[in-house]
Amino acid sequence: MIQKKICMIGAFATGKTSLVARFVKSIYSDIYHSTVGVKIDKKSVKVGEQELNLILWDIHGEDEFQKVQMSYLRGASGYLLVVDGTRNYTLEKALCLQKKVETAIGKVPFILVLNKFDLTEDWEIEETTLNELIEQGWTIIKSSAKTGLGVEKAFLNLSEQMLAK
């Protein structure tokens, strides 16, 4: 069985931990718990005929007080760049983080996960901005850890990209 490390990257409170909980345990909680450092989970998936053991590193969110430890990224085969669609600031932070991650570990597959899609009435991120990123070759998946929308798709799509590399 092949083992791949995936890191969850993004600003503070974008839903990284909730996405992992939904994917690994099929649960969602409205109770917010800030991740301190890194939390590691595992899940086995099947991509085509290939069994894959995913090691999920849920890294604390970056804000003005706490920077992502680039050492947490070592050995990552890919990452999910998580954005909260109700806060445009988190997309700006994600764009900066993507450059930092690429500098730290090189070009590895990643997906921009536009989370909290269940709150579209509070949406701040413009569709034109997303289209510009898609034109640059970015994969963007809209998700909701609360409803489960797009969660499995994001992890499986990234798994396919990592296996193809």
From TrEMBL:
CDD domains: Rab. InterPro entries: P-loop_NTPase, Rab, Small_GTP-bd, Small_GTPase. It comes from the Bacteria. The keyword NAD does not apply. Pfam families: Ras. Keywords: GTP-binding, Nucleotide-binding. GO terms for molecular function: GTP binding; GTPase activity. Gene3D superfamilies: P-loop containing nucleotide triphosphate hydrolases. PANTHER family: RAS-RELATED PROTEIN RAB. This is Ras-related GTP-binding protein. It comes from Aliterella atlantica CENA595.
